[in-house]
Write a structure and sequence with these properties.
The structure is a homodimer.
Chain A: H1 7-26, H2 32-42, H3 45-55, H4 59-67, H5 76-80, H6 87-97, H7 111-129, H8 136-150, H9 154-170, H10 175-191, H11 208-215, H12 224-238
Helix pairs in contact in A: 1-2, 2-9, 6-7, 8-9, 8-10, 9-10
Chain lengths: 239, 239
């Protein structure tokens, strides 16, 4: 992370961020080195502190950050044997269908490490919870959701700007769809309960729809009738 | 405008757009030369044709484009004498309060000229109609509204990406507000009737609220309220 002790350093930092942004624009979609380079440049101390401060206002996130809680090892085949309506099945099915594997737990030496590692290990779970596929639009929906949940992540905002500009220039026909995904992800991320620090490994056998209703991550396209039936279901569960 | 007859030209065009984007990032906010340079680079023939095609699907816009209808001269003092609830008063008051003047009608030689001139002359009217102030967030709300109404304007999408990245880097505390404005402008622009080609100079004495209702640009919180009530029930159910 950069520190910004003076106007001069701030100006240098800003120019470096813009240069890294330029590199990621020119790189092929999904160039992780370019993404990593941008993240290292833009994730400054001030922005990181602000993010931790905002997250820590929520007991769940505060506890996770203080105790650096991680999900640990995940057995995809075991989760895939759970009933189809469960989070565990939906998550494992998403990974298996897309040829993905769970992120291996990494060494966490400080709060910054923890923030990155936790967000990385829940990335695919959040994909499933907010119904975001792995297309450019789906990744943008998730990135907007993450931005709304973290509220002060320069990296998340910059990635949204990158996806929007890159799609606008390289594939104009997808730009409207990308904007729809961006606005939907932001809306859901703002209305949803804070998901940072949720210990998903204790929730694998819960029906996904119940978790989506509990955390309030409902698609805006949900019809009133579906909303009503969901609502009745929740009310029934409480009575 | 650029034409893209070959992959080579497309690649050159893309790099020029990214370079102009870089220039606008480094320029002070509101640097019209940098904005103009980006517009000239990014507004390619294909994107422009697609925009005209999409707009022409609406009789109002098609008629305005075919006949190159302009608003003509506007007398701010005369409009400011209208009842306070009228469009004319609201528009003239917006300009007078912000020290702005109506755009003088310009020479229109082709469809591209017409598109730019019409969008320029209605810019401040649209500000009033969608309740967007002239702050960075307000301009972004309007830019997102324009992007949603035009649907294929590379310039509008690029300006949104620019505002988001610039604010993220230069004033992180405003980034969340900017994203709220962007998503609200996009949502209203998608739900609203197409406003391109509306002859506002025939509507000055109509109450603004009636026009907002007629064009469906009133802020709507229906989906949010449904989601909120549902969430409350489900949170209760799970506790």
């Amino acid at each position: 992370m950069n520190t910004k002790d003076s106007a001069e350093q701030h100006s240098q930092w800003k120019m470096q961020v813009f240069e890294r942004f330029m590199q990621i624009l020119k790189a092929p979609y999904g160039d992780f080195q370019a993404i990593w380079n941008l993240a290292n440049a833009i994730n400054d101390e001030a922005g990181f502190r602000r993010t931790v401060e905002l997250l820590s206002a929520h007991p769940l996130a505060k506890n996770a950050i203080q105790n650096r809680l991680l999900l640990g090892a995940i057995d995809l085949q075991q989760l895939h044997a759970l009933p189809q309506e469960t989070l565990g099945y939906a998550y494992s099915d998403h990974l298996l269908r897309n040829g993905l594997t769970p992120i291996q737990s990494q060494i966490v030496e400080d709060e910054y490490d923890y923030l990155i590692v936790h967000l990385t290990e829940v990335h695919d779970i959040w994909h499933v919870v907010i119904n975001a596929d792995i297309s450019m639009a789906g990744e943008t929906k998730l990135q907007a959701f993450v931005a709304a949940q973290l509220r002060a992540s320069r990296f998340s905002f910059a990635m949204l700007a990158k996806n929007l500009l890159k799609t606008t220039v390289e594939d104009l026909d997808l730009a409207e769809q990308l904007m729809d995904a961006l606005t939907e992800g932001w809306r859901i991320g703002k209305q949803a309960q804070p998901l940072f620090g949720v210990q998903w490994n204790t929730l694998w056998d819960i029906p996904l729809i119940d978790l989506q209703a509990k955390w309030n991550v409902l698609p805006s396209t949900i019809s009133e009738s579906i909303a009503e039936s969901l609502s009745n279901k929740c009310v029934a569960a409480s009575s």
